[in-house]
Task: inverse folding
């Protein structure tokens, strides 16, 4: 199998026999680590109709000037005759048009052949006449990639496409994506065949979205350690059950996730959200760091999407890509107050997705969901797949280019928090003029990883350099000026990093696909003796469970991140006067210095470290909240990396590695010395 990326690059030496979980959003360790520890001590588990609405960007492409609270459908020009109930709507007075959906459908039709060829190449379709859903998924993401760049990020445009329109484009009676994955039998079977983990989300639309483990191990045996179907059903009574990273855990979902990654030529992943019918709030209002593509595969779900908040000056400490998560909140009643509220958001969409429908939401756009749209619904569970385009997660944006170039040049980034916070999307960057802030947080061009970096012209380099110059002018930081050559160097290095991350993601999904085919083959060979019997997890098959396949890929990703960080610091020494003192720190202070609640850290989830904040200290164990609201409880000190050296006063001492008794003894000794 050859790489679907630009063929001027030779395919990497891919390992086909190992799979892992989705990386952009991480699984909580509180239950997962305990589950895996039950099995092997040396391993631990690292590892979200009236057919509703189709808004598009106004011709001015300024998202803050359009608003739609009605339920509408897609394109007047192409689809007004889909059927009598599917009437089209445009409103010049609100700045809403259907052009983006027209463009998407034209792209989708054009990409169908390419998607079919892709599906044959990877063994989903057996011949020229067989059209499969995986090929349609590829065409879906290819069509999105070909849209105008203004579709993405904080300046982007959400849109919605009903399944009937997709079916017409495919020349089918029923869309290829309709009913691709159901709670029963697909999810039920996956829970029986593998060792999956999931979280259940909170349902208070006045507070930040938090998640907790669906279950904890009840004993030491394999069956007692893994999550059961009954536990998932029980959790559905409480809130939405979230399966993060599921594209590499469940082989059937690995195909669409690989299609997303290949068609976009960007690191991609998928989460799955299951909600019981009648849930008043299935996900409180929040934003995501990823541009997301939602595919409803079972039941229905109501979505309300808002323009990004404009309260950056009021709350600069909030990450615009993680609003409404963890300690931050986006109360629904405040969002519904409209542009005049403190958040400055407006309702853009109020839609109900049904089987086969597609909804696109750019990064940073608040959205909330429920399943109470009708009383006569004919489903029990709403299930949708959220495909994530992970540009911001993997440094592929203008803000990260600037930060890395500054570090490489030995300059401090004045937009970063003086506390050394790793999250670039918090702090003074949110106090920049709105247009400049949005441009700095925009992703690099979607074709950034397509070509060799040496082929870059001056256009991209000069554009990013111009943004950096504007930031310097606004902040008064004229001393730390970045040259076009330093920007080019940073872009080339980020290209190398992004390519490595992309390859690792592709390997994850390819390996999961191979595992699925192996399971199918094994089932066929034993069908005559195992009909109706529960899947037997043999010792050999246990080693192929997704939880054991995760760690190597996380380790590769963490190594790539460390390599990029090390490279950025090779050019010059960054001086941080705030941490200077006469005391000497432990050389390994990042993993040994004492932690306190509120410390900005990076926490380990199966070998890859992600930015987080310490939320609780309990002896030698720590709880953290990640940038997107996910939690991990009971981490050991070695699993947490402190980002800034602790300040040690001249009259104090480093307590790293000391017991409470030793600290007390040392304090008495120093006090006695001062008295003399």
Result:
């Amino acid at each position: 199998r050859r790489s679907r990326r630009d063929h001027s690059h030779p395919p990497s030496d891919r390992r086909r026999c190992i799979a892992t979980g989705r990386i952009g959003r991480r699984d909580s360790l509180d239950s997962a680590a305990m589950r895996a520890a039950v099995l092997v001590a040396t391993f631990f588990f690292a590892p979200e109709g009236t057919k509703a609405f189709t808004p598009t960007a106004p011709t001015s492409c300024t998202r803050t000037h359009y608003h739609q609270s009605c339920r509408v459908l897609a394109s007047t020009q192409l689809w007004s005759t889909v059927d009598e109930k599917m009437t089209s709507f445009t409103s010049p007075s609100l700045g809403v048009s259907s052009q983006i959906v027209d463009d998407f459908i034209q792209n989708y039709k054009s990409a169908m052949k390419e998607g079919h060829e892709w599906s044959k190449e990877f063994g989903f379709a057996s011949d020229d006449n067989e059209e499969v859903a995986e090929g349609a998924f590829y065409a879906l993401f290819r069509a999105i990639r070909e849209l105008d760049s203004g579709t993405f990020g904080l300046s982007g445009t959400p849109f919605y496409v009903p399944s009937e329109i997709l079916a017409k484009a495919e020349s089918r009676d029923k869309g290829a994506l309709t009913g691709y994955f159901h709670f029963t039998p697909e999810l039920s079977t996956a829970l029986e065949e593998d060792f999956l983990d999931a979280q259940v989300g909170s349902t208070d639309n006045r507070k930040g979205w938090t998640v907790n483990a669906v279950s904890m191990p009840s004993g030491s045996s394999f069956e007692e350690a893994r999550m059961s179907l009954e536990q998932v059903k029980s959790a559905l009574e409480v809130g939405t059950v979230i399966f993060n990273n599921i594209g590499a855990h469940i082989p059937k979902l690995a195909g669409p996730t690989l299609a997303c990654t290949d068609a976009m030529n960007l690191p991609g992943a998928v989460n799955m959200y299951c909600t019981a019918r009648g849930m008043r709030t299935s996900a409180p209002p929040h934003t995501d760091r990823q541009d997301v593509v939602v595919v409803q595969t079972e039941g229905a779900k109501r979505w309300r999407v808002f323009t990004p908040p404009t309260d950056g000056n009021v709350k600069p400490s909030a990450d615009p890509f993680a609003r409404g998560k963890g300690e931050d909140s986006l109360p629904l009643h405040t969002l519904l107050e409209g542009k005049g509220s403190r958040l400055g958001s407006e309702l853009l969409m109020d839609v109900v997705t049904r089987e086969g429908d597609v909804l696109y939401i750019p990064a940073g756009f608040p959205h909330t969901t429920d399943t109470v749209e009708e009383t006569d619904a004919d489903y029990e569970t709403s299930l949708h797949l959220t495909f994530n385009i992970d540009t911001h997660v993997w440094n592929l944006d203008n803000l990260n280019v600037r930060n890395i170039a500054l570090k490489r040049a030995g300059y401090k980034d004045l937009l970063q928090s003086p506390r050394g916070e790793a999250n670039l999307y918090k702090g003074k960057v949110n106090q920049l003029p709105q247009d400049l802030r949005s441009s700095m947080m925009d992703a690099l061009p979607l074709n950034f990883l397509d070509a060799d970096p040496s082929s870059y012209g001056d256009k991209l380099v000069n554009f990013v350099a111009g943004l950096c110059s504007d930031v310097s002018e606004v902040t008064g930081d004229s001393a730390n000026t970045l040259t076009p050559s330093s920007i080019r160097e940073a872009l080339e290095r980020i290209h190398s990093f992004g390519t490595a991350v992309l390859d690792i993601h592709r390997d994850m999904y390819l390996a999961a696909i191979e595992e699925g085919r192996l399971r199918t083959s094994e089932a066929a060979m034993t069908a005559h003796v195992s009909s109706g019997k529960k899947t037997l997890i043999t010792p050999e098959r246990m080693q192929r469970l997704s939880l054991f396949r995760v760690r190597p890929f996380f380790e590769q990703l963490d190594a790539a991140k460390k390599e990029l960080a090390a490279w950025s610091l090779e050019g010059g020494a960054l001086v941080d006067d705030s941490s200077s003192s006469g005391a000497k720190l432990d050389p390994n202070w990042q993993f040994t210095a004492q932690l306190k609640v509120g410390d900005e850290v990076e926490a380990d989830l199966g070998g890859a470290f992600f930015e987080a904040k310490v939320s609780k200290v309990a002896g030698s164990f720590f709880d953290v909240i990640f940038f997107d609201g996910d939690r991990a409880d009971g981490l050991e000190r070695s699993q947490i990396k402190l980002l800034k050296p602790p300040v040690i006063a001249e009259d104090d001492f480093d307590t790293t590695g000391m017991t409470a008794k030793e600290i007390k003894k040392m304090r008495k000794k120093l006090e006695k010395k001062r008295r003399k």
